[in-house]
From TrEMBL:
<feature type="domain" description="3-hydroxyacyl-CoA dehydrogenase C-terminal">
    <location>
        <begin position="186"/>
        <end position="282"/>
    </location>
</feature>
<dbReference type="InterPro" id="IPR013328">
    <property type="entry name" value="6PGD_dom2"/>
</dbReference>
<dbReference type="InterPro" id="IPR006108">
    <property type="entry name" value="3HC_DH_C"/>
</dbReference>
<dbReference type="InterPro" id="IPR022694">
    <property type="entry name" value="3-OHacyl-CoA_DH"/>
</dbReference>
<dbReference type="InterPro" id="IPR036291">
    <property type="entry name" value="NAD(P)-bd_dom_sf"/>
</dbReference>
<comment type="pathway">
    <text>Lipid metabolism; butanoate metabolism.</text>
</comment>
<dbReference type="Pfam" id="PF02737">
    <property type="entry name" value="3HCDH_N"/>
</dbReference>
<protein>
    <submittedName>
        <fullName>Methoxymalonate biosynthesis protein</fullName>
    </submittedName>
</protein>
<comment type="similarity">
    <text>Belongs to the 3-hydroxyacyl-CoA dehydrogenase family.</text>
</comment>
<dbReference type="Pfam" id="PF00725">
    <property type="entry name" value="3HCDH"/>
</dbReference>
<keyword id="KW-0560">Oxidoreductase</keyword>
<dbReference type="InterPro" id="IPR006176">
    <property type="entry name" value="3-OHacyl-CoA_DH_NAD-bd"/>
</dbReference>
<dbReference type="InterPro" id="IPR008927">
    <property type="entry name" value="6-PGluconate_DH-like_C_sf"/>
</dbReference>
<feature type="domain" description="3-hydroxyacyl-CoA dehydrogenase NAD binding">
    <location>
        <begin position="11"/>
        <end position="183"/>
    </location>
</feature>
Length: 287
């Protein structure tokens, strides 16, 4: 039996693409959310994005019909410690994540799980920033989090059984299925997906095939749902380059070093769907 969703109250740190998507998922399942960001305009944009995503999720049948949506509070400060869990979803920068985790860790009550939605930074590395490292656990929600039910959960070497149990209770309320993996740079999904995207971009840069043809072959021949380069646009090419840099720095594997085409696109501000242009062009920017 699932817990009463109002028994949970989340803080989500970061109101960008993933933070907004995670907030949508939680709100749609009846869980109250405090969404924190350092920029007021970002929070205003996030509210509009979340409203749109909730409508989309309902149309897709991705939300329970018997729950009242949770209350959304947006704020510039992480001052409210009366929460049952924190989900950190800021940019994939180890120093920035460590700073945010240290700040929230000093505010929340002992026993509150802190969940980092990193796509590749080792959890034990981030745990150094917390006053209670055993309360940190990793989750890798896929974008869009409000539609994709499978979640990669990363247990660090210091993550406690209590933290694992608290996260599983939350994921059950959110109707998510979890696969728990051990801590490692990139874990499973990013370690496999990101080098594939990198190689796909290299093929385009070398003139072997267009982005459309690469994705068509991967969908038609290998059963990839969207194709690696369309997936890259949804992830955000800026986020992808950051994640590949993390993998390259921590593994030394040259397959993880972002290729020239990815770096050129990011330098030009072509981040993917959220900026209207990446490997494809989009009629309306997505948040």
């Amino acid at each position: 039996m699932q817990a009463d969703p109002t028994s949970h109250r989340l803080v989500v740190l970061g109101a960008g693409v993933m933070g907004s998507s995670i907030a949508t998922m939680a709100l749609g399942h009846g869980v109250p959310v405090v969404l924190v960001d350092i920029d007021e305009d970002t929070l205003v944009h996030a509210r509009a994005t979340i409203d749109r995503q909730l409508r989309h999720a309902r149309l897709m049948g991705a939300l329970p019909t018997d729950r009242t949506p949770g209350e959304l509070v947006t704020t510039l400060s992480s001052h409210d410690a009366d929460v049952t869990a924190v989900i950190e979803a800021i940019t994939e920068d180890p120093a920035l994540k460590a700073k945010a985790l240290a700040e929230i860790g000093a505010l929340i009550r002992p026993g509150t799980p802190v969940i980092s939605n990193t796509s590749g930074i080792p959890i034990d590395e981030l745990a150094e920033a917390l006053p209670r490292p055993d309360e940190l656990i990793g989750t890798h929600f896929m974008n869009p989090a409000y539609l994709i039910r499978m979640v990669e959960v990363i247990r660090g070497p210091r993550t406690s059984d209590t933290t694992i149990a608290a996260l599983m209770s939350l994921l059950d309320t959110l109707d998510r299925k979890a696969v728990v993996v051990r801590d490692s740079p990139g874990f499973v999904t990013s370690r496999l997906l990101h080098p594939m995207i990198n190689d796909a971009a290299r093929l385009v840069d070398e003139g072997v095939a267009s982005a459309e043809d690469v994705d068509t072959l991967m969908r038609g021949c290998l059963g990839h749902a969207t194709g690696p380069l369309r997936t890259a646009d949804m992830i955000g090419l800026d986020n992808l380059v950051d994640a590949l840099d993390v993998l390259f720095e921590r593994t030394g594997n040259p397959a993880h070093e972002p290729c020239d085409l990815l770096r050129r696109k990011v330098a030009a501000g072509d981040f993917g769907a959220k900026t209207d242009r990446g490997f494809y062009e989009y009629g309306k920017a997505l948040a």
